[in-house]
Design a protein that fits this description.
With 214 residues, the protein is of the alpha/beta class. Helices cover 35% and strands 15% of the residues.
Length: 214
């Protein structure tokens, strides 16, 4: 309440802060779509495999537990692999490839992913998240599947750039749909990239950010 202005990353946080201060500015999590999160600057790899990928820290690996039995099932399909990028290797019982997260190789590692996932639990903590995984996926033309929690519902347009999955059947049906439809993966990826460029890129948020200082 003593603040001149308050900047928050999403509407959920805005709704909380506005209880104490009416001067709230939303500046979402953004990426540099020109020089960093730009798929045209990096070569797509593993064209003969379909990779379901997840990236995050060890503290968020717990969210994969809800779909780990499904990932175990899907990795048995020929030419389907699971890639986990994190700062700590998880101990899942199914077969998966692991990349230790490094800033120098972050984009190259993500470029191996054909379908990105972001499961979440429905709780207050998740409501406040910024959706960075999805933003990264979309910026690199990777379609995404996510739980319909918080900002995920704003980022994903069902059947346009990804799928919102309410239960395990949704996860399985939608993952299999994208595994079996390369053209749809491409279409979703292109739509996701456009969405990020227009709404969650550095250039799209420049004016909102600068407004904080006058």
């Amino acid at each position: 309440s003593w603040s001149w202005k308050i900047v928050v990353g999403n509407d959920f946080l805005k709704d909380f802060a506005v209880q104490y201060n009416s001067n709230i500015i939303v500046v979402p999590t953004v990426v540099d779509t020109k020089y960093y999160h730009n798929p045209d600057l990096h070569k797509k790899v593993r064209a003969n495999e379909i990779t379901i990928g997840w990236t995050g820290t060890h503290s968020t690996l717990q969210y994969l537990n809800s779909i780990s039995p499904l990932l175990s099932k899907l990795q048995k399909i020929p030419n389907v692999r699971i890639l986990i990028i994190a700062n700590q290797k998880p101990s899942f019982s199914f077969n998966f490839d692991f990349r230790f997260w490094k800033q120098d190789t972050e984009i190259e590692d993500l470029m191996e992913v054909d379908i990105g996932v972001m499961p979440l639990t429905k709780d207050t903590w998740s409501q406040g998240k910024g959706g960075f995984k999805i933003i990264q996926y979309f910026a690199l033309r990777i379609p995404a599947l996510a739980s319909p929690v918080g900002i995920n519902k704003r980022l994903i347009r069902d059947g346009v750039n990804g799928f919102l999955c309410n239960d395990i059947d949704d996860w399985e049906n939608n993952l299999k749909y994208l595994i079996n439809n390369r053209n749809e993966r491409t279409r979703f990826g292109k739509n996701g990239r456009i969405f990020i460029e227009e709404n969650y890129s550095v250039s799209a948020s420049t004016s909102s950010f600068l407004s904080l200082f006058h």
